Amino acid sequence: MTRDTAIESDTAAVRALLERAREAWDRGDGTAYGAQFTADATDVTFVGSVYRGGAEIGRAHQVLFDSFLKGSRLAMEIIDIRFYGPDTAVVVSRGDVYKSRPKKLGKVQTYTVVREAGGQWRIAAIQKTKRQGLMEAISFMFQPATRPRSA
Predict the structure, then answer these.
(1) How far is CA 72 from each of CA 23, 79, 85, rounded to the nearest angstrom?
(2) Looking at the whole model, is its pTM more than 0.70?
(3) Which of 34, 132, 133, 137 is the most buried (most CB within 10 A)?
(4) What are the pLDDT digits (tens) for 78-101?
(5) What is the 3-state secondary structure (H, E, C) of the chain?
């Protein structure tokens, strides 16, 4: 397999991993959601809660799916996937939770994904940040050089 073919295959596998996580969320299935994470994963929510391990992430999300997030769906747009060696990738995405389609994706997620023994890709870490559009606009207005190329 050529390097380009391997990267294409791994990119498809990483996209499929995040799609499985999204589908589990949409079904309200905390167990399946948590199964997409490594046993020692870290999930930092946009409110600052820190969950550790796929089992805890799944358990906590099931409680959320049965209450605050009941019937919610997850929208996601992958912005970038970068590989750091053959078994690690960093994924940046925009996303949001919704019950009726969101007008814009108001959160940014950074995933670290790893290939485990046996070849299965899993989420090792995720950091979710609520985008502060007004603060971003003010910052860019007063300091235009701070605007990222991808803003």
Answers:
(1) 11, 22, 35
(2) yes
(3) 34
(4) 999 999 999 999 999 999 999 987
(5) CCHHHHHHHHHHHHHHHHHHHHHHHHHCCHHHHHCCEEEEEEEECCCCCEEECHHHHHHHHHHHHCCCCCCCEEEEEEEEEEECCCCEEEEEEEEEEECCCCCCCCEEEEEEEEECCCCCEEEEEEEEEECCHHHHHHHHHHCHHHCCCCC
Pick 3-146's CATH classification: 2.40.30.20, 3.30.460.10, 1.20.1250.20, 3.10.450.50. Answer: 3.10.450.50
Tell me the β-bridge partners of 98: 73
The pLDDT of residue 134 is above 60: yes
For tokens 């089992």, name the residue.
55
Q: How confident is the model at residue 149 (pLDDT cuts 50, 70, 90)?
A: confident
- Distance linking the first and last C-alpha atoms of the chain: 36
List pLDDT tens digits, range 112-124. Answer: 999 999 999 999 9
